[in-house]
């Protein structure tokens, strides 16, 4: 199996066939593992407490007469925005930590980091409504299925809106800005560039391994909403199919 292009190490002799290979000392990798695991654990705990803070704000708004009627809408909107944005931030941090750990071939470490943080981040609030909210603060008509349905729909709407912006709007804007910058830079050139080469030059960069890993990670999160919480609202199946 070929090493990753980003893999760094010192030249050593293979114990299998004696050929020259790149070797990264285990003690240095272990130290990086410890620090990386600590950062991921801190992010997971931070995400847990931030979700708890938003839920606590909702409880406070419910108890206040002036904000009682729209407490659920405000908290659901805040959770939808927070979970969508923070997942992207955590994904960027996990990617940089995985590159820093200097793995030779596989991306299992990246998959593990993404799963741990995003599982807590994406599903914690739904598990709270399904299993904790009823005994702790009560639900409408003594049944939390309606509250769970509302929370699920708000999260899915935020996720669909962000995915549309990330996949459809942002790449096109980036290409247009890149072309405008290149045209302003190349005004003094008399030669005309080949149209195909010019078009490809301005396309967004694509890392096959990382982009595939991230795409599967997003698919797992979406399927998690469908498999775990389809009983809360049947439309989650259609939404999941639509955004994937």
Structural class, judged by helices and strands?
Answer: mainly alpha
Q: Kindly state the mean pLDDT as a whole number?
A: 77
> Biggest sheet: strands, sense, closure?
2 strands, antiparallel
End-to-end separation in angstroms reads 31 Å
Q: What is the CA-based Rg, rounded?
A: 23 Å
Beta content comes to under 5%
Shape by Cα distribution: globular
Spatial sequence of strands, sheet with the most strands: 1-2
Total DSSP helices:
7
Uncertain residue ranges = 188-192
Name the helicity range. over 70%
Q: Would you list the SSEs in sequence order as H and E?
A: EEHHHHHHH
Please tell me about this protein's structure:
By secondary structure, the chain is mainly α. It has 7 helices and 2 strands. Strands 1-2 form a two-stranded antiparallel sheet. The protein starts with 9 loop residues before the first strand and ends with a helix. Mean pLDDT is 77; it is low at 188-192.
How are the SSEs placed, and which strands pair?
Layout: E1 10-13, E2 20-23, H1 26-63, H2 71-101, H3 108-137, H4 145-185, H5 195-201, H6 208-229, H7 235-243
Antiparallel strand pairs: 1-2
Summarize the structure.
The protein is mainly alpha-helical and 244 residues long. It contains seven helices and two strands.
Name the descriptors.
244 residues, mainly alpha, 7 helices
């Amino acid at each position: 199996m070929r090493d990753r292009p980003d893999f760094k190490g010192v030249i050593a002799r293979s114990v299998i066939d004696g050929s020259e290979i790149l070797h990264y000392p285990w003690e240095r990798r272990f130290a990086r593992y410890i620090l990386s695991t600590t950062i991921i654990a801190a992010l997971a705990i931070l995400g847990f407490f931030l979700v708890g803070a938003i839920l606590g704000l909702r409880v406070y708004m419910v108890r206040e007469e002036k904000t009682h009627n729209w407490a659920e809408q405000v908290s659901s909107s805040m959770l939808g925005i927070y979970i969508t944005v923070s997942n992207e931030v955590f994904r960027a941090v996990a990617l940089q930590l995985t590159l820093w750990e200097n793995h030779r071939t596989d991306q299992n470490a990246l998959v593990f980091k993404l799963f741990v943080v995003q599982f807590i981040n994406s599903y914690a609030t739904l598990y709270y409504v399904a299993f904790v909210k009823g005994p702790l603060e009560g639900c409408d008509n003594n049944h939390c299925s309606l509250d769970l349905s509302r929370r699920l729909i708000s999260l899915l709407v935020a996720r669909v809106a962000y995915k549309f912006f990330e996949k459809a709007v942002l790449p096109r804007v980036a290409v247009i800005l890149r072309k405008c910058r290149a045209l302003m830079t190349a005004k003094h050139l008399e030669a005309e560039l080949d149209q195909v080469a010019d078009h490809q030059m301005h396309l967004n960069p694509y890392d096959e391994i990382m982009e595939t890993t991230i795409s599967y990670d997003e698919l797992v999160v979406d399927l998690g909403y469908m498999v775990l919480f389809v009983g809360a609202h049947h439309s989650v199946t259609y939404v999941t199919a639509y955004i994937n």
